[in-house]
Amino acid sequence: MKLDDCNALITGASAGIGREFARQLARRARSMILVARREDRLAELRDELQQQHPNLVVQIRQADLADLAQLHELMEWLGRERIDVNVLVNNAGLGDSGPFATSDPIRNEQMTLVNVVALTSLTRHILPQMIAKRRGGILNVSSSAGFLPMPGSAVYAATKAYVTSFSEALRAELHGTGVSVCALCPGPVRTEFQQVAKRTDGRPEIGPEFLVIPVERVVRDAIKRLEADKPIVIPGFAMKLVMLLPRLTPMPLLRMLMRRYSGRDSPV
Q: If we measure between CA atoms, which residue out of 239, 264, 247, 233 comes closest to residue 149?
């Protein structure tokens, strides 16, 4: 999948990783559709990109993907306008940090709707046109949290496990169709995501400094790997190594480590 002259749709484009995808793809795309909840942020980004790239066509769509009505409205608009999308970046995501027993049920529902339902629905809506034209790239922003159960981020990690598994299965189904599927599984990235994910009684957690990767590198690595038709991207050598260890560790030992990590003595 070559990204030159592509028509890209990016969700969660108003900040963080999504905004950086827009900035880096703008150098190569023909057109872009930027989707997020904050229309003012989207307008600022659109103006910035069009000033730097006068030939780029940028459309913005304000949508809260945790709202099924707004999600369906977005897909209906794409169909009604017959918009050709050959690069889909499913970046929109919500997180949470803290014990599940004290979690906000509404927040849990929103995480599932954005991280799982919206990603799946948009992919299903856009994929047939990619297959028909034998050209397309789907980049699903997952997380290294999806590689193993994570006490304190139970729902978030579970949704990201879904994203990674879904991406792998879809990739196998699409072999030979001209459509590439890649899952981006970053570790800690310094964006406003942590601030939004923290609870009122906690503080944002980003992880050890040696694991933190700049957002520019995360996106650069993801774009490179999508073009190379690679299945998974874990930016940073240290993060690759850290994620390899738990994936090779027997589950009984992982359970013991997770009990200690969560500060609980009861069985997991």
A: 247
Identified catalytic residue from 156, 162, 166, 193:
156
178 has a pLDDT exceeding 60:
yes
- Annotated catalytic, 261? no
For residues 10 and 16, what is the distance between their CA atoms, to the nearest angstrom?
12
pTM for the whole thing? 0.87
- The pLDDT tens digits of the residues spanning 76-87 come to 999 999 999 999
Q: Which domains does the chain have, with CATH numbers?
A: 7-262 (3.40.50.720)
The CA distances from residue 122 to 10, 68, 90, 137, 233, in Å, are 11, 12, 8, 13, 21
97 or 203: whose pLDDT is higher? 97
